[in-house]
Amino acid sequence: MQISDNVVVYFHYALINEQGEVLDGSKGGEPIPYLHGCHNIVPGLEKAMEGRTAKEHFRVSLTPLEGYGEVDEDKIYDVERKLFSRMPELSVGLMCHMTNEAGEDEVVSVIEIEDDLVTVDANHPYAGQSLTFDVEIVSVREATPQELQAGQTIAV
Fold first, then answer.
1. Quick count: other Cβ atoms within 10 Å of Cβ 36?
2. Number of H-type helices and E-type strands within the chain
3. What is the spatial distance between Cα 42 and Cα 11, in angstroms, rounded to a whole number?
4. For the chain, what is the radius of gyration of the CA atoms?
5. What does the pLDDT look like over 8-63, one tens digit per residue?
6. Phi–psi pair at 97, nearest 5 degrees
7. Is the distance from CB of 9 to CB of 142 less than 8 angstroms?
8. Is-contact 137 56, C-beta < 8 A?
9. Which of 36, 56, 71, 88 could, after both became Cys, cross-link 128 (CB 3.0–4.6 A)?
10. Is 66 helix (H, G, I), strand (E, B) or coil?
11. Both ends of the chain: CA-CA distance in Å?
12. Rounded distance between C-alpha atoms, residue 42 and residue 47, angstroms
């Protein structure tokens, strides 16, 4: 079965930066499932999956726009340090959940700590980077009606 809209794909991947370092991956663990055509993975990878079949192995290099996006300077902002008063382990690099000014929950990374201010970055950690995905497609199957309704895979 070829990968097309509304099929579930299980795959392994290694995410590699421009220096050849593996940043993330699933090899050695369970394959990652996703519902194709529902924008549940980065756009460039989903496009590269189109038309492929189980057992295929390929590499695709993506620009930031095809991957996790460019760095958005508006997603880097200062918050009052007192908001972190219950976090004695506050340090640069710490990732935590915050509610932004629009009332949306987002994951942020602490990038600077000053006396009264903490600078956080809500960009994806790989935003602004050109990346390579080394992919092995494990299996492809039809999506269930429940998955189609949800727009994502559901454990079966």
1. 19
2. 2, 9
3. 14
4. 19
5. 999 999 999 999 999 999 999 999 999 999 999 999 999 999 999 999 999 999 99
6. -90, 140
7. no
8. yes
9. 71
10. helix
11. 19
12. 9
